[in-house]
Amino acid sequence: MLIFIEYPKCTTCKSAKAWLDEAGIEYTDRNIKDENPTIDELREWYAKSGLPLKRFFNTSGMLYKQMSLKDKLPQMSEEEQLELLSTDGMLVKRPIIINDDTILVGFRQEEWKQKLL
Asked: What is the pTM of this model?
């Protein structure tokens, strides 16, 4: 079963959800603010995704900017970054799609079409 991790007030998440619904793709919804990803989940998703760890950060979010993470991340180890991500869902890029063999971070319609349809 596909898991759709979102922040309901996020416009990109709303667009992604509408796209999934239009495509007839079933999913389980998870609010990232209510149920923050654990460090173990993040570690697994990062490993499966093949993406750079920075892609998991919500770089346009207020919290990211308030914490000056643009300057701090390069000095942090991967483990420290994963630990930080697990502290607050607002630091995590969304939406995230988790499927058996697919992890998609952020909504890129073409990429979603290729991987999910």
From this structure: 0.94
